[in-house]
């Protein structure tokens, strides 16, 4: 593993090991030069391949012919920011153990271990690779959609970006509520060459797998989202019996009215705007009338999933879902005024109905009185017959 350059008398040692540490002496005639070789070895757990939230354990070992110095160790991540890991060492100062907690996909890249000592003077930088296979999405992403719209839910993996050469598998599940049973929508696998394959698993749930999408992306398309399509969509990947996951919560909004059709003059309609699940504290629903005043604004209360507004005049109303003062989605509901003749017809029908009800009431009263009189006459005749039978007499007119 060593060779000497005959022109400049340099000694080259390849594949350096901890046991190579020591004092090297060069003798040339009466001249003697000694050099102390200090060797460091840095190892990283799992060969530097991690999933999100896992812990990387690093071991720095040193060896030299002199008493081992007390090292000052600093870590820099892929963005050249200083990282302070948990540090422990043995009594001999030979081995240092460092723990990097809760790695994220954004931590992938080349890290640097900076080793420093004043006596002997050591100023060494040791680069090492960290690869975290995961999602570029947030841990929990919330997506809003309006009823009957087209929705595409996407999970962006980083296996191409970090050149992850090992194969892994995964699946996409959906459940309407946290406590509900999960339904598998599709599964996928990525080969060691980075080839991605997907298989549709559910035939009951209406969704499509988009043909065109960015590389390293798992996606589903809901061509006409329904109110009951809301819920949690969870993408999970598995690598060497370890798992990582990312969720997208789909919230669907719809608008309706308690009565459908044109609004008659003098009548009132209630407009309803609701979402499929309670909103977070930083979000709310808002009804407002187009070109209206501040009085034509109705806001939902905290954590409410529905807001109603009473409307007595024609106009266009918009319902907005607002998160952190940013309007995420909107739906409009036009309230149309009924033609005048419809109002007259409705008024006439109301008056006619009232007259009909009054006439029926009078008829019922007259019929009741007549029936009561017939009943009284029948009782009198029954009593007369009973009286004649009891006396058994017959009176003849002379």
Order of helices and strands: EEEEEEEEEEEEEEEEEEEEEEEEEEEH
Shape: rod-shaped
- How far apart are the termini? 164 Å
CATH topology call of the largest domain = Immunoglobulin-like
Summed up, the helix count is 1
Query: What is the CATH superfamily of the largest domain?
Result: Immunoglobulins
CATH class of the largest domain: Mainly Beta
Description:
This protein has one helix spanning 340-391, and strands at 2-5, 10-13, 22-28, 31-37, 39-44, 49-50, 56-63, 72-76, 82-83, 86-89, 95-100, 109-117, 122-132, 140-146, 151-156, 168-175, 183-190, 196-200, 217-222, 231-239, 242-257, 269-275, 283-289, 297-299, 306-311, 315-323, 326-335. It is mainly β and 398 residues long. The protein has 3 domains: 2-132, Immunoglobulins (Immunoglobulin-like, Sandwich), CATH 2.60.40.10; 141-252, Immunoglobulins (Immunoglobulin-like, Sandwich), CATH 2.60.40.10; 258-335, Immunoglobulins (Immunoglobulin-like). The strands form 7 sheets. Strands 14, 16, 17, 18, 20, 21, 22 and 25 form an 8-stranded mixed beta sheet that branches. It has a 5-stranded mixed beta sheet with strand order 6-13-12-8-9, with no helix packed on it. Strand 1 (2-5) and strand 2 (10-13) form a beta hairpin. The protein is rod-shaped and about 170 Å long. The protein starts with a strand and ends in a 7-residue tail after the last helix. The mean pLDDT is 87.
């Amino acid at each position: 593993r060593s060779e000497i350059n005959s022109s400049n008398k340099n000694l080259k040692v390849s594949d350096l090991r901890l046991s190579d540490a020591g004092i090297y002496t060069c003798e040339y005639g009466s001249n003697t030069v000694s050099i102390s070789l200090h060797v460091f070895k840095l190892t990283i757990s799992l060969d530097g391949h991690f999933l999100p939230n896992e812990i990387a354990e690093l071991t720095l070992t040193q060896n030299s012919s002199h008493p081992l110095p007390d090292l000052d160790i600093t870590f820099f991540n892929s963005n050249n920011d200083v990282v302070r890991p948990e540090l422990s060492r043995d009594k001999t100062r030979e081995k240092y153990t460092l723990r990097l907690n809760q790695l994220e996909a954004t931590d992938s890249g080349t890290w640097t271990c900076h080793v420093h000592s004043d006596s002997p003077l050591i100023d060494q930088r040791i680069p090492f690779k960290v690869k975290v296979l995961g999602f570029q999405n947030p841990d929990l992403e919330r997506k809003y959609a309006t009823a009957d719209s087209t929705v595409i839910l996407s999970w962006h993996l980083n296996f191409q970006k970090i050149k992850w050469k090992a194969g892994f598998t995964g699946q996409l599940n959906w459940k309407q509520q946290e406590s509900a049973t999960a339904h598998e929508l599709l599964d996928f696998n990525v080969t060691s060459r980075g080839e991605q394959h997907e298989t549709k698993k559910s035939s009951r749930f209406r969704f499509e797998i988009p043909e065109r999408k960015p590389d390293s992306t798992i996606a589903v398309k809901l061509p006409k989202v329904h109110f009951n399509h809301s819920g949690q969509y969870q993408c999970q990947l598995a690598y060497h019996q370890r798992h990582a996951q990312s969720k997208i919560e789909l919230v669907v909004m719809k608008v309706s009215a308690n009565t459908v059709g044109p609004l008659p003059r003098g009548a009132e309609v209630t407009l309803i705007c609701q979402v499929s699940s309670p909103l977070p504290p930083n979000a709310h629903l808002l009804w407002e009338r187009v070109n209206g005043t501040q009085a034509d604004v109705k806001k939902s209360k905290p954590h409410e999933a529905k807001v109603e507004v009473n409307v007595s005049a024609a106009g266009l109303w918009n319902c907005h879902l607002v998160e952190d003062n940013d309007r995420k989605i909107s739906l409009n509901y036009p309230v149309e005024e009924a033609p005048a003749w419809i109002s007259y017809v409705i008024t006439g029908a109301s008056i006619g109905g009232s007259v009909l009800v009054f006439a029926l009431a009078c008829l019922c009263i007259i019929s009741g009185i007549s029936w009561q009189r017939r009943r009284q006459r029948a009782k009198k005749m029954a009593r007369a017959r009973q009286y004649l039978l009891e006396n058994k007499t017959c009176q003849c007119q002379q």
